[in-house]
Amino acid sequence: MKIMKTFDLYIVRHGQTYYNIYRKMQGWSNSPLTNQGQKDAENIAKKLANIEFDAAYTSDMTRAEYTAEVILKHNQASKINRAIATPLLRGVFYGYYEGTNIDEANHIVSATHGESNYHDLVNKYGQVKIKDFFHESDPFHQAENNDEYWQRWHKGFEKIQNDKNVQDGSKVLLVSHGPAILSLIDRYGQGKYDLEKRPENGSLTKLHFDSDGNVTVLGYNIK
């Protein structure tokens, strides 16, 4: 993928949802924000209130759209007042496992690959293979594999860089999801970040895109 513009991407994880507290797999499933989730959105909105965004994007999941709406409502520096919602920037699709208890799903996937727990599975094979394992163990094989996931996200990045409002030096807001942010850090973080520390709801992660197609992590899981 060729990134033609140099810009900073401010990635916010949506506020806490009911599926988050119930510990359910939540990729393309919608679950409303809790009261704490609304506070998460308000808190990060206040911290970003003086950042001038030239464009704003969000996953088309309602939890992300609501968080983006709150951020832009509080923003004092940007001319834009609405984020562009796109399915290209959703989190990973878990297929058959959508809505399943996280521990139960992780146990099934781990067991099918000879590991007793998910932690050992990740340590042995790395984050890249995990999406493939969910796809393989899905009885319908509808969960996204790693290639499908990144093909979609690359299209999302291309959509942003082709935005006429995004120019060299722009700041762009993106509201997305925990596993998506973790995948970005795994891919672009050069091993500098602890992947066992997952991004918190309402946290900020910053990426820098340059004109040569390089992506640099400027900060991860900032609260």
UniProtKB/TrEMBL annotation:
Keyword set includes Hydrolase: yes
Keywords: Hydrolase
Biological process annotations from GO: negative regulation of glycolytic process; regulation of pentose-phosphate shunt
SMART domains: PGAM (SM00855)
Binding residue positions for substrate: 13-20, 63
InterPro entries in alphabetical order: His_Pase_superF_clade-1, His_PPase_superfam, Phosphoglycerate_Mutase
GO cellular component, as recorded: cytosol
A GO term for molecular function: fructose-2,6-bisphosphate 2-phosphatase activity
Record's protein name: Phosphoglycerate mutase
